[in-house]
Amino acid sequence: MKLKGISPIEQHVEKIVVAVFAAALLGLLAWQFIGPRNKVTLGTDTVTIDQATDVVARKAEEVQRKVASRDPALPTDVPSVAVGEQFRARFRGPVAPKKELVVALGGPIRAIGPGGELPTVGALTLTALQVPAVSAPIAAQYAATIDQREVQSYPELAALLPTEIPFDKAWVTVEGTFNGAELGRVLATDPDGEAGSMAAMPKYWWDGGVQILRVDLHREELQPDGSWSNATVVQPIPGQAKLQLSGTAPGAEITLMDLQTRVREAGEDADDIRRPDFYTTVMGQVWVAPSEVKTDGSNQDQQLKDRKLRERDDAESDIADLEKRVADIPNEPKNKAQRAGFTRRIEARKVELRKINDELRTMGVESADDTTNQAPVDPEGDASKAKPLLEDDAVRIWAHDITAQRGKTYRYRLGVTLSNPVYGRDAALAADQADLAKSPTLVSSDSPWSENIAVLDSTKYFIVNAQENDAFGAGPSATAEVYVFYWGYYRKGTISMQPGDPLAGEVRVPEMEKLIAVLPQDPGDEPLPPAENVPPPGGRGRPDRANEPPPPENVDPGNPNAPKLPARPTYKEILFERDAFLLDVAAAPSQANGGAAQGSAGYQAFMRDTEGAITIKSPLAERSQADYAWVAQSYAIGEQELRPRAEKQKRKPKERDEADRPPPGKSGGGRGGGSGGGGG
To answer: HSE on the CB side for 544, CA within 13 Å?
Structure first.
């Protein structure tokens, strides 16, 4: 039966669909074998999958070669990123896009901090902080011989000292006080009261965050015309504690965190920053703070007493240090010689300590070897009792000027540099107050100038006698005392002159360098005997070694090869000369007019100096000068330190009658007393 109305396509549509799908399937199957292969992209290259492993391996080998290369090629297209600037900008900027977040109800939220209410961001208005000035400073000059080992510890010090020993040096120390309590009051006070627009600085900003970071010393020099010039900021002495007040990178600003670290360090090292020690000296004037310098006649005796006290402290410190070093050396046969050297050194220092204590007793100072009634020592010392900076109304500060030149006159003033509690907090300030937070430091107001300090020249002369005719009619003459500073003190010579004679002569000085040359430089060396009047080189914090003449042929019995020391220092002559000469001697006006003046005080010497000027020297006026008193006292102390001490009279044993002597083998009592006479 014939189908009506159905086309062939409709009759065979299912066959057509099956055929199309079969053809597509066959095409896909054929594509897998004859079509392009699968690829992947590695870096900038597109490779087939089977080649990908090789490409990765080659890249790995290339990286390995670069890692192992001793001279790798550095990239040149690395962008420069100012990380520090980005950090500071974001650190100082607001946390949120807006200074204050919008609140649904009520006013702005205010947090409460440890010092009271925290300031609203960008709303705090402060007054510029005025740091109080340091008090009127006290300046004093000193002169001594600096220990040569200080130069080894601080090489930059060598440029400020003579090229060879003795390292004689004059310097000036300037002292003042700073009113920290007044600064604390300023920080805590609202400048215009509660009703005003300004506010007190938040306490948590400055409480524990303000310290003296540096003591500033300023100097001016007196000119011949009476004016002051050559204004100089005196730098800290080499080796003094200094805080870095700039950023870690050159030219970079210090960060707030770094400043807080400096503040903490300044609190821990407050003594070294505010009151730095001077260098160890081996001979010469004992350093004390300018406010403690004595100006009356007791100065000489006090200096000797101070020196002996320091010698005692030095000996006790040496003994403790040496005993510790001996204890650290293993007690083994190979270390026997080293331990013996330390032991002999300890015994030598103990002998010195006993002698020092004997001398201190004669000066009225209680012996340090009697410790039965001594109070316990506070391990923290004065530091544990020091007031906080902002509670102390008299913080002692001082600074040393080791660059002062002899023969010149100076004046000084002091200041302090403190940490700025507002630094880095500009986000909390009003817009017009941002400048208050820019500097990490604050500088105090200028102190008044000190009194003038005339640094004594290393050579001085004074006309101490003048006459028109002597008893033999020899004509006019004058006598000059000349002084040369050498090994810590002024050494004196005397020159007699007649008109036309130059001011030239010789001064006898001790040859201490010969003694120092044979002294051991380390406690572990073979020790020399306990010698008097030999200034062993001092270490840091060990000033002013013993200075007494040794006995003749002083040799260490445990070390017969040690060099012998002379019985006392030898001397040499050095030349003193000035480009000046005596013109004439004439009666002083009062004497010429029939006055009552008698003797050399009634005459005056006419001298022609280096520049051709004529100066008049009156012996009475010369002896009245403060400079003459200074150098004469220095000479007297120097001579006293070199003078041999009188030997104590040894006690002789009482003679006994032979009939009273006990028979051999029987005890006669007092058995231990006979062995004491062999020492010496």
So the answer is: 21
The answer to whether 202 and 116 have CB atoms below 8 angstroms apart is yes
Calculate the average pLDDT of the chain.
Answer: 76
166: cis peptide before it, omega within 30°? Answer: yes
> Based on C-alpha coordinates, what's the Rg of the chain?
43
Instruction: Say what the pLDDT of residue 403 is.
Output: 96
Q: Cα separations (Å) of 512 from 149, 408, 535, 547?
A: 16, 29, 8, 11
How many CB atoms are closer than 10 A to CB 18? 10
What are the strands, taking DSSP E only, across 104-263? 112-113, 116-117, 138-146, 168-178, 212-222, 228-234
- Which stretches of the chain score pLDDT less than 70? 1-5, 35-37, 88-89, 91-123, 192, 195-197, 247-251, 294-304, 306-307, 363-364, 366-385, 470-473, 514-568, 590-601, 643-680
Instruction: Dump pLDDT digits (tens) for 167-193.
Output: 999 999 999 999 999 999 888 887 767
Query: Which residue, chain included where needed, has tokens 């009047």?
Result: 533
**Helices (DSSP H) in 502-579: which residue ranges?**
512-517
Asked whether 566 and 510 are in contact (CB, 8 A), the reply is: no
- Spatial separation of the C-alpha atoms in residues 298 and 285, rounded to whole Å: 14
| Mode of pairing for the β-strands spanning 441-443 and 228-234 | unpaired
How far CA 178 is from CA of 133, 421, 566, in Å, comes to: 7, 18, 51
Q: Can you name the residues that pair with 328 across neighbouring β-strands?
A: none
Report the interhelical angle of 626-642 vs 299-328 (nearest 10°). 40
Exposed/middle/buried for residue 551 (C-beta within 10 Å: 0-12, 13-18, 19+):
middle
To which residue do tokens 């014939």 refer?
2
Amino acid identity for residue 125 in this structure: T
Q: Return the closest-CA partner of residue 167 out of 154, 182, 184, 186.
A: 154
Q: What is the pLDDT of residue 13?
A: 78
Write b or e for each residue in 332-353: b if 16 or more Cβ atoms lie within 10 A of its Cβ, otherwise e.
eeeeeeebebbebbbbbbbebb
With the CA atoms of 322, 324, 326 and 329 taken in that order, what torsion angle do they form, in degrees rounded to the nearest 10?
Answer: -140
Q: What is the pLDDT of residue 558?
A: 40
**Interval 43-52: pLDDT, tens:** 777 877 777 7
Q: What angle do CA 668, 669, 675 make, to 5 degrees?
A: 100
**Alpha helices for 329-414 (secondary structure H):** 336-362
Angle of helix 299-328 relative to helix 336-362, nearest 10 degrees?
160
> Which pLDDT score is estimated for 659?
53
Residue 443 is predicted with a pLDDT of 93
CA dist list (Å): 519 to 146, 340, 342, 351, 536: 17, 18, 15, 17, 7
Angle at 624 between CA 623 and CA 627, to 5 degrees: 80
Q: Is 610 helix (H, G, I), strand (E, B) or coil?
A: coil
- SS3 at position 478: strand
Range 377-383 contact pairs with CB under 8 angstroms and sequence separation of 24 or more: 383/270, 383/271
Q: Which two tokens stand for residue 552?
A: 């003749």
**pLDDT value for 95:** 61
**Cα(222)–Cα(408) distance, integer angstroms:** 7
| Phi and psi at residue 298, to the nearest 5° | -80, 0
Exposure string for 391-430, b = 16+ CB within 10 A, e = fewer: ebeebebbbbbbebeeeeebbbbbbbbbbbbbbbbbbbbe
pLDDT of residue 666: 47
Torsion of CA 516, 518, 524, 529, to 10 degrees: -90
Domain ranges (residues) in the chain = 8-65, 138-367+388-454, 459-642
